[in-house]
Amino acid sequence: MAGAIDLSALKQPAAAGGGGAAGPSGGVEVTEANLEAEVLVRSSQVPVVVLLWSSRSDASIQLGDALASLAAADGGKWSLATVNVDTVPRVAQMFGVQAIPTVVALGGGQPLSSFQGMQPPEQLRGWIDSLLNATAGKLGGAGDAEDPEHVDPELVQARAHLDAGDFDAARSAYQAILEAKPNDPEAKGAVRQIGFLQRASAHRPDALTVADAAPDDIEAVFAAADVEILQQNIASAFDRLIALFKRTADDDRTKVRTRLIELFDLFDPADPEVIAGRRKLANALY
What we know:
alpha/beta
């Protein structure tokens, strides 16, 4: 999940004394602190529809209200989350915003579908229905997740760490869950996503430039690939690492291959870019 793009048109300061229009009437407001819990982790239970909006866009507020009405009508079958691109631009960048409004649907921590711009009510209803049909029986479901009698207390604690923005504690808590239940889908997804986002968001802003200037510096190339993943330049990140893999040998070669496989595992194995990346890596091996 990622995407640094040019948000200059959305970063202009509001006029002095103006508070801007009120936001959408429903949905969970996403911040850097609750992104993991309310979007990535929540999407392992029910589909999460993320609206990226701006107070300077009447269309995005209208779309938010329409989505909130649908969410209320569907009674918890899916979750609406809203991202104000003006106040949390780093979160907006992770979603690859290129226009406002943008809507992205996630399931199991992975993007499933998206669209830009206002849509007629009947098209919104159809899009939501298609999303629910596509994820039916594939996610944990809202019922058990919201019933306190069925919630694992260790999961509750891990989610609490996420809500507090303590990613280190959250990752440790989810890792402990995996040690007891290696196939727990929420814990598996959360550990991968938290680890990657912690690492990738810590890289220097000019990571791509540094790697381009030193294409054989393994750590620089690793950083650049992470940044490209955040920018949704998935194929470019894989190609960068595969090119480095071809130029390395012995332990360095193993190190690069391990990082590639780690990045492949962030995505659905059926993702075309992952399939292409694995094919290119296999070709490079022989």
